[in-house]
């Protein structure tokens, strides 16, 4: 495995696996005692997840000129937005249950698209300083998070069963989170290697990373 890809998978995959535990634990704790506060708790915890992920990714990207603090802040903010929209829409049976089918479909597609675009788009603002053309990074993140969430669903859905103890539910979710993190890291890592090693387009003001 390429050295850059290996470092990225270890840092980004590990960071997301650890970061995902923050909203997973917050959801389990708050949902059991104050369900009405679940959404704001998950948004705050999602910001924490994004901060851990962004910090872990920046351990690799700082070597090519990315500002770690800015990258971490952008990733944290984007993750909070993703959790707000994702749980606000997909986690609200009352909201979706009252919507006509066409609106339900359109809303789900729109929210899903924004969620998948959120992190890559936010990070592109910082990555542009390094590569000059971050659009492939946005596309890679859409594919990576889409694949990761698919893996998460395929693993956790058959394992979660009614009546399970809270600890079992949490453990299954964490297992799914680890597999999601690994999937995301592999896809984004492959894209990152190609992006950093491809020629900078003619006319770009950005130099190739050292």
Could you explain how this protein is built, in words?
Keywords: Membrane, Transmembrane, Transmembrane helix. This protein has helices at 3-33, 38-61, 68-90, 93-97, 101-131, 135-159, 166-197. It is mostly helical and 210 residues long. The chain has one domain (3-197). The longest helix has 32 residues, at 166-197. It is globular.
Pattern of helices and strands: HHHHHHH
As for the number of domains, it is: 1
What structural category do the secondary elements indicate?
A: mainly alpha
Major pleated sheet: none
- Cα distance, first to last residue? 21 Å
Determine the number of helices (DSSP H or I, runs of at least 4 residues). Answer: 7
Shape: globular
Number of strands: 0
- The proportion of residues in beta strands is under 5%
As residue ranges, the low-confidence spans are 202-210
Mind telling me the C-alpha Rg?
18 Å
Average residue-wise pLDDT? 91
Percent helix range = over 70%
The oligomeric status of these chains comes to single chain
Keywords: Membrane, Transmembrane, Transmembrane helix
Transmembrane segments: 9-31, 37-56, 68-91, 103-125, 137-156, 168-193
């Amino acid at each position: 495995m390429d050295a850059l890809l290996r470092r990225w998978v270890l840092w980004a995959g590990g960071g997301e696996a650890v970061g995902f535990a923050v909203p997973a634990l917050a959801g389990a704790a708050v949902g059991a005692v104050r369900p009405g506060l679940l959404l704001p708790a998950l948004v705050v915890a999602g910001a924490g997840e994004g901060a851990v992920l962004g910090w872990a990714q920046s351990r690799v990207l700082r070597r090519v000129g990315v500002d770690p603090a800015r990258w971490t802040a952008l990733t944290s903010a984007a993750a909070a937005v993703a959790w707000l929209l994702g749980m606000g829409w997909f986690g609200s049976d009352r909201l979706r249950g009252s919507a006509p089918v066409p609106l339900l479909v359109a809303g789900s597609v729109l929210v899903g698209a924004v969620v998948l675009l959120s992190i890559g788009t936010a990070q592109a603002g910082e990555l542009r300083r390094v590569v000059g053309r971050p659009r492939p990074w946005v596309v890679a993140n859409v594919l990576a998070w889409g694949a990761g969430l698919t893996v998460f669903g395929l693993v956790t859905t058959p394992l979660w069963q009614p009546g399970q103890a809270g600890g079992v539910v949490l453990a299954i979710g964490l297992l799914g989170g680890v597999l999601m993190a690994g999937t995301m890291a592999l896809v984004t890592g492959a894209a990152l290697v190609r992006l950093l090693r491809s020629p900078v387009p003619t006319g770009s003001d950005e130099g190739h990373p050292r």
